[in-house]
Amino acid sequence: MNAPEETGPDAMRIDRWLFAVRLFKTRSAAADAVGGGKVHLNGERVKPSHGVKSGDTVTFTRGAVVFECVVAAVRLRRGPASEAARSYDETPASKARREEFAARMKVAAGLTPRPDDRPDKHDRRLLRQLRGRN
Predict the structure, then answer these.
(1) Is the separation of the CB atoms in 11 and 52 below 8 Å?
(2) CA-CA-CA-CA torsion for 96, 32, 22, 17, nearest 10 degrees?
(3) Angstrom distance (rounded) from CA 46 to CA 34
(4) pLDDT exceeds 80 at position 1
(5) Can you give the C-alpha Rg of the chain in angstroms?
(6) d(Cα 28, Cα 34) in Å, to the nearest integer?
(7) What single DSSP character describes residue 17?
(8) Residue 101: how many CA atoms within 13 Å on its side-chain side?
(9) For residue 57, what are the contacts with CB-CB under 8 A and spacing of at least 6?
C-alpha cells in the first residue's frame, strides 16, 4: 500500500525547500544561492530563512538559464526525484528558455572541432598550461 504524500506545514524555509525538491544538491548550496541574491521569491530577493508556501513563484539562474517555477507542495523531507518533481510546476516561459538553450548548445557542440586522436602526455600538459592549471 502506498504511503500518503508527505506535505509539510503551510510554510518552510526556502533553502530547505530548494534542497528538498532537488533543485540544489546540498542545503548549504541552496542557502548560499539565496543569501547571495541569486534566488528570488515572488520577484523579491529574500533571506535563506524566508518561508515558502504553495502558490509562490521561485526564480533563480541555473547555469546560464533562468529557471522559474510555481510551488505546488511543501514537502517535510527530501524524497525520491519523482516525488520532488511533483512539488513544483515549471512555467511555460522557463521551459521554452531551457529547451532553446539546449538546442543552441547541441548546435555549438556539433560545430566544435574535435581532434582525430586522444592527446598524449605532452599534449595534455600543454592543455593544462593553456587552461591555467599547472
Answers:
(1) yes
(2) -100
(3) 7
(4) no
(5) 20
(6) 10
(7) H
(8) 13
(9) 41, 42, 43, 68, 69, 70, 71, 91
Residue 104, C-alpha cell as written in the block: 543552441
Measured CA to CA, the distance from residue 100 to residue 73 in angstroms comes to 28
Give the C-alpha separation, 71 to 82, whole Å: 15
Using an 8 Å Cβ cutoff, are 84 and 78 in contact? yes
Q: With bands split at pLDDT 50, 70 and 90, how would you rate the model's confidence at 3? A: very low
Contact 10, 76 (CB under 8 A): no
Q: Phi/psi at 2 (nearest 5 deg)?
A: -75, 140
Tens digits of per-residue pLDDT, 98-108? 999 999 999 98
Angle at 31 between CA 28 and CA 32, to 5 degrees: 85
Q: Is 18 helix (H, G, I), strand (E, B) or coil?
A: helix
d(CA 80, CA 77): 10
